[in-house]
Amino acid sequence: xxxxxVDEQLDDRGLSEVLGFALVFxxxxxxxxxxxxxGFGSLEETRDAxxxxxxxxxxxxxxxNMADIYExxxxxxxxxxxxxxxxxxxxxxxxMNVTAINESGGSEVNQFPIDPIVFxxxxxxxxxxxxxxxxxxxxxxxxxxxxxxxxxxxxLLLPIVQNRxxxxxxxxxxxxxxxxxxxxxxxxxxxxxxxxxxHQKIILNVxxxxxxxxxxxxxxxxxxxxxxxREDNVRCTIDDPExxxxxxxxxxxxxxx
Length: 257
Fold this sequence. Notes:
alpha+beta
């Protein structure tokens, strides 16, 4: 074999080694990129899910602290919520109306505007409003803690929890936030309970983006008949209650950073 053939074989071998190395390197890089994309996506999903679970636990504490105010008469409570990549904000106001119709056809109307507390992460939400806690994702949701709103029997109890926002901060993120809640007023609705046995019908109206979840809760109560005049509204009635007692606890809250 002459020197020329030897040189050609060496060149071919060297080229094959370079091509082999390039193919292996490209395969390794592609695998690393693919694993990184899939892995980071999974990590982000896991992080978001854990963040929502932590928020739900924090809202369990928030609901318990609010209950200390409207059930036990505590003057105030504070709840810390860690946000990380999420937001805590004042939600779209909802309205609760309670109307009593007496024997002569006259009516007594009480309106209770409520400012929800909302934990927001992507399209997922954890919400506290009117003594109830919700978890939603997109158009789907569930009431994860019930309000003390209806004790539906012929002796009807309606303890309204009216949480309203005060303060300069309406939305915050990226830190631990303290929700400070203070009792402002706890009393029977004026004029409503003077003669609790004289009402022929009670109408309970809730206007809320989560009206469907409120309706599910109300329809599980005995003696209540509910319908939805609009997508954001549920209206429930109880006929001929033996007695009705309506109370309202006003709780003012603010965000402290």
